[in-house]
Amino acid sequence: MVESKVLPSGSESGTYDIEQTAPTLAMVAQLAGVSLKTASRAINGEKHVAKETRERVLSVAENVGFRINAMASLLKRGVTTPVVSLITGDLSNPFYSMVAKGVEHEIRSHGIRLTIASSDEEPEAERELVRDFIDQRVYGLLVVSTLDSHGEYEAYQNRGVPLVFLDRPAVGLAADSFVLDNYAGAYEGTAHLISHGHTKIGYLGDYPRLRTRQLRFEGYQAAMVEAGIPDPLRWASNSAHDVDSAFAATKALLTLPEPPTAVFAGNNQITIGALQAITQFAPETALVGFDDFALSDLLGVTTISHDPTEMGRLAAKRVLARSGVRAQSCEETVLPTALRKRGSGERPPVR
Question: Residues in domain HTH lacI-type (predicted)?
Answer without folding.
Answer: 23-77
